[in-house]
Design goal:
This protein has 306 residues and is of the alpha/beta class. The chain folds into two domains: 3-89, Four Helix Bundle (Hemerythrin (Met), subunit A), CATH 1.20.120; 93-290, Rossmann fold, CATH 3.40.50.300. Helix content is 54%, strand content 14%. It contains 13 helices and eight strands. An eight-stranded mixed β-sheet has the order 3-2-4-1-5-6-7-8, sandwiched between helices. Helix 11 (232-244) links the parallel strand 5 (219-226) and strand 6 (248-252). The chain binds guanosine-5'-triphosphate (GTP). This is Signal recognition particle receptor FtsY.
Length: 306
């Protein structure tokens, strides 16, 4: 199944929610009055795209409606998908397209960091890259074994230390190993932590700083966020970005959530490109992000004139 079919299936609940609210708004007629614009903004906010993205989208559509003398709400809705796509931050290609890079995966507990590292390892190996995994999640007992299992499935090497070890030391070992083996994509799994825990966030900052100082290739920090958490994901992203200066975001669990709009909220408000999306638990359930397909899957098409 291609990206669009997969994401379209996954986001059907988000799309149904949006459609239902839009239909209520359109029932009063297609006039481009203040009630329509306010209603559109509210519908977007209720779809979890965030207040900032919703306001940008409506402002730009209003501007286009005036410039192009659009006749009615349906003409505006024809432009909505493109406008949503344009509201995503751009520039994520470099993270996985560098000749060599270290990518650290961070986020709160259970968002899918380990799973995402495993999926990316497989994808990158299949594309001919020399991948090395680092298990800096030394906190959770099963995390090391879980990543080892993913390494086995993806057929890549992994650096680990026993549970309770200093995560920064694991990163050191991993970088040394990458240098000696010539690995060109190093994926580091870190322990999940609440963005509200100052101690744990400081620990993560230390790990990232150690890697940035020691590494001889570009270092990227990527937030793994779970779409099912909705608006809470935005607050998490703010805190992780403040602490680590993130480079991008992977949005997981987009299969079957009504809160898929959160991907846009995080990307737009924090200017973070969406690098990949997770649409299931399997090794192949990771897709490259395509803003236009995503917008189409989130909103659907609106042709009620017929
Ligand atoms: N449906 C679905 N489940 C996912 C996806 N990504 C991960 N999961 C599931 O989410 C659960 C948590 O995934 P992990 O990879 O262990 O999460 P983590 O962030 O490493 O967890 P901690 O190390 O405890 O913070 C597992 O059951 C995964 O199978 C996805 O895209 N869709």
């Amino acid at each position: 199944m291609g990206f669009f079919d997969r994401i379209s299936e996954g986001l059907s609940r988000s799309r149904d929610k949006f459609k239902e609210q839009m239909n209520v708004l359109l029932d009063r007629g297609p006039d481009l009055d203040d009630e329509f614009w306010d209603g559109l903004e509210e519908t977007l906010i209720l779809s979890d795209v965030g207040a900032s993205a919703a306001s940008t989208i409506v402002e730009n559509l209003r501007d286009q409606a005036t410039r192009k003398a659009l006749p009615d709400a349906y003409a505006v809705l024809d432009l909505l998908n493109d406008q949503i796509a344009d509201t995503f931050a751009e520039g994520g290609e470099r993270v996985f397209d560098e000749d060599a890079a270290i990518v650290l995966f961070v986020g709160i507990n259970g968002t899918g960091k380990t799973t995402t590292v495993g999926k990316i390892a497989k994808e990158a190996t299949d594309a001919g890259r020399h991948v090395l995994l680092g298990s800096a999640d030394t906190f959770r007992a099963a995390a090391i074994e879980q990543l080892e299992e993913w390494a086995r499935r993806a057929d890549v090497e992994i650096c680990t230390r026993e549970r309770g070890s200093d995560p920064a030391s694991v990163c050191y070992d991993t970088i040394e190993r990458a240098e000696s083996t010539g690995a060109d994509l190093v994926l580091v799994d870190t322990a999940g932590r609440l963005h509200t825990s100052a101690d744990l966030m400081r620990e993560l900052e230390k790990v990232v700083n150690v890697v940035r100082k020691r590494a001889n290739m570009p270092v990227y920090t990527v937030l793994v966020t779970d779409a099912t958490t909705g608006q809470n994901g935005l607050q998490q992203a703010r805190e992780f970005d403040r602490a680590l200066d993130l480079d991008g975001v992977v949005v997981t669990k987009l299969d079957g959530t009504a809160k898929g709009g959160i991907a846009l909220a995080v990307s737009h408000e924090l200017d973070l490109p969406v690098l990949k999306i997770g649409v299931g638990e399997g090794i192949d359930d990771l897709k490259d992000f395509d803003a236009h397909d995503f917008a189409r899957a989130l909103i659907g098409d609106f042709d009620k004139r017929a």
